[in-house]
C-alpha cells in the first residue's frame, strides 16, 4: 500500500516533489467517463454514482483562466489561502490552544485519541458519579505518551474553526495548516516559491470581490444547462463555487462532503480516489464534533492497521481528471485528491434535494446521515464530548 517499503511518513522524492502516482492496492476500478450528453452517464449521476463528463461547455468561458489571466483580472481580493510549511506550522502551533505535539493517551481498548481527555471517566473510580462506568478501566493507570505527528507538508487537512473553538479536549487536535487571506500577487509569490519549505493552496469561493472580467466569464457559464440538470437530478440550490489553485503534489486528504459536487477541471490534472459511503467502517471518520469532522483518521500512505484494522477492506475507484472534464462527486462519497500537476479548478456545490419517499433497505449514504444525526442528538443531550464516547460504548460493547 505504501510505496515506501519501510512505512513511515510520506517522503519527498526530491526537494518539494512528492510521488503523485503512488500505487494503491485498494483501487478496484476507474470512474466511468461519458460525453456530457450521453443519457447513460446522466442517469448514473441521477442515481448518485461518480462519473466523469467530457465535452461540456458548462465552464467554457473559464478555460482561459491560467495564472497570468487570473493575475490580470481576478481583482484585489483578499483571497483565502491555506499555507503549510516550516514557518506556518510553527505559527499554527503557537496560535492554537492545541499547541502541544504530545497528548496523554491510555491503552484502554474503548479509547482512541479523539474521544479522550486526561481526566476522562472511563476508570470507574467514582469521580463524577453521574457518569456511566465502563469495564476494563485499569488501563487508565497506564497512561502513555503518544506523539502526534505533524502531517507531511503537502497534506492540506481541512479543519472547522467553530468546532475547534468548541472542542473540549484541545489536545486531540493538531493544526498543521493555517488559513490566511492575501492578495493574488502574494499568493503567486508563495506558489512559485520553494515548495520544500512552504506549500500553499488557494481555495476561494467566487463572490462579488472578483474583477469585472472574471465576473463576466462567470456569468457566461452555461447556467441554463446547470439549472436544467439540477432539476433533473433532484438537487437543492447551488451553495457556492470554490476556485482552487493547487501546487503539484498538494493533497486534500480523504474526506466526504454533505453536498453534491460538480468538480470542473480548468488547468492541469488531478487524481481522485473515490470511496463509496459503504466504506464508512473502513475509513474511521473523526467524531462529528471534532474539527476534522468528515475526514478520515487513516493516513492512506501509511495506514496504522492496529488502530484501523477495517482499512484492510477499503475499496476505491480512481478518476484522473483533465482540463475540460467535470467529475461528479456524489454527496457522502469520500474523496482523496492528489494534484498530479499544478492545477486550477472550480467546483459547484449543491445542497441535497428535498427528501423523497424513503425506500428500505436504507442506502449507505442514508445510514451515514443517520449516524451523524444520532451523534449530534446524543451530544446535545449530554453536553460532554467524552461522555458521548462512553455512552456509545455502553450501548454497543458486549451487547450487539
Ligand atoms: O481539489 C481538491 O484538492 C479538493 C476538492 C474537494 O475536496 C471538493 O471539491 O470537495
What does this 3D model show about the protein?
This protein has 400 residues and is of the alpha+beta class. It has a domain at 27-97 and 152-354: Sandwich (Jelly Rolls), CATH 2.60.120. Helix content is 23%, strand content 22%. The protein is built from ten helices and 17 strands. The chain has helices at residues 39-46, 67-73, 86-95, 161-166, 184-191, 212-219, 223-232, 280-283, 364-382, 385-396; strands at 27-30, 33-35, 51-54, 79-85, 102-105, 144-147, 178-182, 198-205, 238-240, 242-246, 251-255, 260-267, 270-275, 316-321, 326-329, 334-339, 343-350. Strands 2, 3, 4, 7, 8, 9, 10, 12, 15 and 17 form a ten-stranded mixed β-sheet that branches. A five-stranded mixed β-sheet has the order 1-14-13-16-11, with no helix packed on it. Strand 2 (33-35), helix 1 (39-46) and strand 3 form a beta-alpha-beta unit. The longest helix has 19 residues, at 364-382. The chain binds 2-oxoglutaric acid. 2-oxoglutaric acid (AKG) is lined by residues 244, 246, 252, 257, 261, 263, 270, 335, 337, 345, 347. 2-oxoglutaric acid is lined by residues 244, 246, 252, 257, 261, 263, 270, 335, 337, 345, 347.
Short summary:
By secondary structure, the chain is an alpha+beta fold. It has helices spanning 39-46, 67-73, 86-95, 161-166, 184-191, 212-219, 223-232, 280-283, 364-382, 385-396, and strands spanning 27-30, 33-35, 51-54, 79-85, 102-105, 144-147, 178-182, 198-205, 238-240, 242-246, 251-255, 260-267, 270-275, 316-321, 326-329, 334-339, 343-350.
